[in-house]
Write a structure and sequence with these properties.
Length: 471
């Protein structure tokens, strides 16, 4: 019901208590209000399909006892004109439904002395009020759990109008029926609410909060602590950590605390700390997939530089002399996990890598020429692509130092231009194709972001968005 879509933002498996979350999600009053509208529409639909058990009773009248029974009752209309959802700081939410009405149809049957009679009836329930408080917590697996704290229901009036049969007869007992039905209904409402909340919990328990990214990585979005409910929002603290699929190893760093700005004009805010992309860097670096062979066919045709010993021989004459007329191959490989830092309006990625250059012998053997250390700083432009966060990089700075030379002494600085070009024209475009695919945000279900805004702040990026349920 009401909370489904908002709670369906969440997560599972192991919970590391008392650690800072990698991701924070804030659901504002505006988001809750959208949830209320969806929830009320869904409750209205559900109520129309509720099956009402047959009802029978006795009424003692002047001369004897009237036995009546009502059967085949069905709801024909439900109105929920007034409802509200409010946050209850420290607990969860309070849902109030007022002035609700229900119309039903059914059949009646009566036994009085020797008379038996039957017909149909219309029943109108008016002034139905339900007030319920629902606690929102995190269960032991880091998934959301809801429970009823209190529930009160009252029915204003029940009016039955009989058709068919003898009116003197049903007039004998109609006022008893009104009262009896009113009491019976009043007793049934809170158990129904309880059942709905139990059903929601069952659904929440099946949430899969481990989002697969690719064959190496998955992201875990379980809650690391219970939701914090304030007057203006529900804040969820999620792990937001990339793991190697099937082998969960913690990186040697942990998230720094995020405190969200007091914005509430969007339905939903998602804050991703630098920890999340850094845990990705840790996983991919460990998996050994942050490496790339660069060959001449990957260098744009129009480029004046070719990956051969002739080009490099211009800068390092020994290469042209010792390895004349050979093609070359480069191996770029990260040495440490890349590190992302978020500063206001600035997302930067620092990488520390090695670039090994080889000459390709005619028989295919690779002869190493030199190894350079490449420290680079790239600016990340982050954007949203559907429910994914994606990025594109551009080179900011690059610094080369010599690791090993197999061809004697040479001036590393002379290779700056050629390696800047290799990074800009070959490496970064390949990485960008990968990054453009994006990484899933913590949202399940068929939700679409509406007018999302992305800001880079100190230590985290913030997505503020409205949402729309699409299915
Ligand atoms: C962005 O931040 C990095 C360091 O975090 C810095 O080197 C770079 O100059 C900054 N860029 C801008 C445009 O401020
Ligand atoms: C390939 O050629 C190089 C250079 O001519 C030579 O040193 C090497 O032994 C050859 N390797 C094989 C496997 O034939």
């Amino acid at each position: 019901m009401i909370l489904t879509w908002c709670l369906v933002l969440l997560a599972l498996t192991s919970t590391t208590l008392s650690s800072n979350p990698g991701v924070k999600v804030r659901l504002t009053n505006k988001g809750l209000e959208y949830g209320r509208q969806l929830g009320i529409a869904s409750i209205q639909q559900k109520l129309k399909t509720v099956e009402i058990p047959d009802f029978s009773g006795k009424a003692r009248v002047v001369i004897g006892e009237v036995k009546y029974s009502l059967s085949n009752m069905r709801i024909v209309n439900v109105g929920l004109p007034r409802s509200a959802i409010d946050l209850v700081p420290g607990t969860g939410v309070k849902l109030t439904i007022g002035d609700a009405f229900i119309s039903m149809k059914g059949n009646w049957r009566v036994k009085y002395l020797l008379v038996r009679d039957s017909g149909s009836f219309d029943l109108n329930v008016n002034g139905l009020t339900i007030t319920t408080s629902i606690a929102v917590k995190s269960d032991e697996t880091g998934r959301p759990a809801v429970s009823i704290v209190s529930c009160a229901a009252s029915v204003g009036s029940v009016k039955v109008k009989f058709h068919g049969g003898a009116s003197w007869l049903y007039n004998l007992f109609s006022k008893y029926v009104d009262k009896a039905l009113r009491n019976a209904l009043q007793k049934q409402i809170c158990p129904l609410v309880n059942k709905a909340v139990e059903d929601l919990n069952t659904e929440l328990k099946t949430l899969n909060v481990l989002a697969k990214v690719d064959k190496y990585a998955e992201i875990e979005y379980s809650m690391v602590s219970s939701p914090e409910v304030s007057k203006s929002s529900i804040d969820l603290s999620l792990k937001g950590e990339f793991y190697n699929i099937g082998k969960h190893q913690e990186p040697p760093f942990s998230p720094t605390a995020i405190s969200l700005p007091p914005q509430t004009d969007k339905m939903l805010y998602i804050a991703l700390s630098a920890f999340t992309p850094n845990s990705a860097g840790f996983v991919y670096n460990k998996a050994g997939v942050l490496s790339l062979y660069i060959t001449d066919d990957m260098v744009p045709k129009a480029s004046p530089f070719r990956l051969n010993t002739k080009t490099f021989g211009v800068f390092i004459p020994q290469i042209a002399k010792q390895f004349p007329g050979l093609m070359m191959k480069l191996l770029l490989k990260t040495e440490e996990s890349p590190k992302v830092s978020f500063e206001p309006k600035n997302a930067t990625l620092q990488t520390s890598a090695t670039m090994t250059a080889y000459a390709i012998q005619p028989n295919g053997t690779l002869s190493p020429l030199f190894v350079l250390n490449v420290e680079s700083s790239v600016t990340a432009h982050l954007f949203l692509s559907g429910m994914n966060i994606a990025g594109s990089l551009s080179l900011n700075k690059m610094k080369l130092t010599l690791g090993t030379s197999y061809v004697g002494q040479f001036q590393v600085g002379t290779l700056d231009t050629i390696f800047q070009m290799v990074l800009k024209m070959v490496v970064i475009p390949i990485v960008n194709v990968q990054l453009a695919k994006g990484y899933p945000l913590p949202a399940l279900g068929k939700i679409q972001l509406v007018n999302p805004q992305l800001q880079i702040l100190k230590d985290y990026m913030l997505i503020g968005t409205d949402v729309q349920l699409t299915g």
